[in-house]
Amino acid sequence: MSDRSRIVTPPPATGLTRRSFLRSACTAVGMTSLASTVFDLRRIAAAATLPGDYKALVCVFQYGGNDSNNLLVPRGTDYTAYAAARSNLALSQASLLPVTPLSGAGGRQWGLHPSLTGVRNLFNQQRIALVANVGPLVAPVTRAEYLAGTAALPPQLFSHSDQTVHWQTSLPDQPVRTGWGGRVADLLHTLNGTSEVSMSMSLAGNNTYQVGQAITQYQLSPDGAIGLGWYYDGNEWNHPPSIAVRQLMAQSYGNLFQTGYRNTFQRALDQDRLLSAALNGAPALTTVFPDTDLGRQLRMIARIISIRETLGLRRQ
Predict the structure, then answer these.
(1) What does each C-alpha distance from 103 to 27, 41, 100, 239 come to in angstroms?
(2) Containing domain of residue 192, as a range?
(3) Which of helix, strand or coil describes residue 106?
(4) Which of 113, 119, 74 is nearest to 97 (CA)?
(5) Would residue 214 count as lying in a domain?
(6) Helix boundaries (H) for 79-142
(7) Chunked in runs of 10, what are the mean pLDDT values of the chain (316 residues)?
(8) CB atoms < 10 A from the CB of 280, how many?
(9) DSSP of 184-198, one letter per residue?
């Protein structure tokens, strides 16, 4: 929170850059829907008609806590105040990895946690940005308003689980219905034409971020489509359980819940078949990913992006 809270006017749809997107998104995240506040996504969609045009948004959401005060640390004359506030948790100034922001530092010096050598290298290559002092807000608020109890604040402000949901909805003052990723997908999915595979894919199970009105998130694992382990597609397989499933899918149901369940189940089977076939025919990746949970997820994301033309996807 700051006594100089202000609203930053978002850039026009044309000439959108990664830096301006981050700046506008962080301004909008606590005030209203990102899809309607940051920029008019429909205008961007209308402009994206060039052959071969493709865009993907990859969101890495870390649910765990982060000691951000020891991630980006002040150096120089500001270090004394940091060390006094952090006490025995303070990092030694000599251990910090110095970084020099291109702008916005106001002459202040900064350093990264000593374990973040990879992040420091990417920062020096201008391939990542560090966005500080952001969080869910209902409206801009000053420190004085917060202390006086007169500011409109998100409910359960110091509840970690509630705040992670607010980050995914960008609507911290309303009941949870959709996530901002799902609302973006609702606006852009028509760019994918008749593609039968969802543009919204998750490698970490159900999440609020990808919940939309029209687009359903499709879940994968780092090994590919999840599917039914005992189900065999195609009539050439004389497999009684699989035959029974196909018969159930072919029936008509008068009950809306039964019909909805059948449609969801059938859509999952269809997407599993299409995605598995596309992945099986994809060339091997040459990029080496670390053998960690996140590394395996990112490897699958790269494979999904590599088969975008097979799936008929221009936006994911």
Answers:
(1) 18, 28, 9, 64
(2) 187-311
(3) coil
(4) 113
(5) yes
(6) 79-86, 117-124
(7) 31 49 48 46 56 83 84 94 95 94 79 95 91 81 91 85 86 82 89 86 90 88 80 69 79 87 82 87 92 93 93 90
(8) 9
(9) HHHHHGGGGTT--S-
- 97-99 and 218-221 strand pairing: unpaired
297 domain residue, yes or no: yes
Structure-block tokens of residue 135 = 């969080």
**Largest CA-CA distance found in the chain, in angstroms, rounded:** 76
**Alpha-carbon span 99 to 236, nearest angstrom:** 62
In a domain, residue 170? The reply is no
Count of residues in the chain: 316
Structure tokens at 59: 């969101």
The answer to the question of residue 290 being in a domain is yes
Which two structure tokens, joined as six digits, stand for 215? 């687009």
Q: Are 169 and 37 spatial neighbours (Cβ–Cβ below 8 Å)? A: no
CA–CA distance, 287 with 302 (Å, rounded to integer): 9
Beta-bridged to residue 315, according to DSSP, are 55
Nearest to 311 by CA among 189, 181, 184, 194: 194
- Which tokens belong to 152? 């409109």
> What is the token pair recorded at 224?
């590919």
Total domain count, the chain: 1
d(C-alpha 190, C-alpha 44), whole Å = 12
